[in-house]
Design goal:
The chain folds into two domains: 120 residues, Nucleotidyltransferase, domain 5, CATH 3.30.420.40; 141 residues, Nucleotidyltransferase, domain 5, CATH 3.30.420. It contains 13 helices and eleven strands. It starts with a strand and ends in a 9-residue tail after the last helix. The model has no long low-confidence stretch (mean pLDDT 94).
Length: 286
């Protein structure tokens, strides 16, 4: 049985499709649409009807793919941009009525907690999972059978627009100072994945991370697009994302940095998979 998930993020909309059996879940394909909701939210404080119509149109395209592929079970979640917009509930209802499907706005802490579904999240005690998104940063640490989670209003788009607050950076540093040092950081999201792809490495040291990040900062946005093959909506925010990663790396004394393709949409699909085959929910034919 195929299932899917949609993540309405701050920098882009992402969907993933999986094939499942009672004992397995396998990724089939992903879709990404560069709709930057965060630009409106952080600049004007709310989502306009025009932007919500653009979002609805995109979601309907995803739904058409789901119908074609006979996917009846999927969940749609929204993160930082929908959390922060002043018209959050009105915006959610507006889009729901357009697409005839519920949308769940999840908190930053739930977003962080979802990282526990990563296959390696609870293997070993010496790593931290970090998801730097467009509007927020989530951190997950598994230590001595405990899930340590936190969310911060620091993100790549938010920082690029100078909407990040000094107090939130201080809150991040204070929280990190209370955590045990870790050896490895596993980065989620497109920016860290793109960065490691640029330097053609799956794992790097902190020293190399800083050197390569500094080189990247010296390049113009157009050079990043033309010479490195970055998409425009990645080229303009990647340096800001890496700044957040570097803050965490420095404060936790991280020695190695890796990335993973895993994201919110993967975790939501795995959550749905567990619920489906544990009989918490079921699908009935018409």
């Amino acid at each position: 049985m195929k299932i899917a998930s949609i993540d309405i993020g701050t920098n882009a909309i992402k969907s993933k499709v999986f094939n499942t059996t009672p004992t397995s879940i396998d990724f089939i394909e992903g879709i990404r649409s560069p709709i930057r909701l965060g630009a409106e939210v952080f600049n004007s404080g709310k989502l306009s009807d025009q932007k919500l119509n653009e979002l609805s149109k995109t979601l309907k395209k995803y739904q058409k793919i789901f119908i074609k592929d006979d996917i009846k079970m999927y969940e749609i979640v929204a993160t930082s941009a929908f959390r922060d917009t002043h018209n959050s509930e009105d915006a959610r209802r507006y889009v729901e009525n357009k697409i005839n499907h519920p949308i769940r706005i999840i908190s930053g802490l739930e977003e962080a907690q979802l990282m526990r579904f990563h296959p390696k999240a609870q293997l070993g005690n010496n790593k931290v999972f970090v998801d730097v998104g467009g509007g927020s940063t989530e951190i997950y640490i598994y230590k001595n059978n405990h899930h340590i989670i936190q969310s911060f209003q620091l993100g790549a788009v938010r920082s690029m627009l100078n909407k990040d607050k000094k107090s939130e950076w201080e809150r991040l540093r204070e929280w990190l100072s209370k955590q045990n040092k870790v050896d490895t950081l596993v980065g989620l999201g497109g920016s860290i994945k793109s960065f490691l792809n640029i330097i053609e490495s799956k794992k790097i040291s902190t020293k190399i991370f800083k050197e390569e990040a500094d080189k990247l900062k010296r390049m113009s946005q157009q050079d990043k697009i033309d010479n490195l093959g970055l998409q425009p909506d990645r080229a303009d925010v990647i340096d800001y994302a890496l700044n957040i990663y570097f803050e965490i790396i420095n404060n936790l004394n991280v020695q190695k940095i890796k990335s993973t393709k895993w994201g919110v949409s993967d975790s939501m699909a795995v959550k749905t998979f567990h619920e489906l085959y544990s009989k918490k929910i079921s699908i009935y034919k018409d």
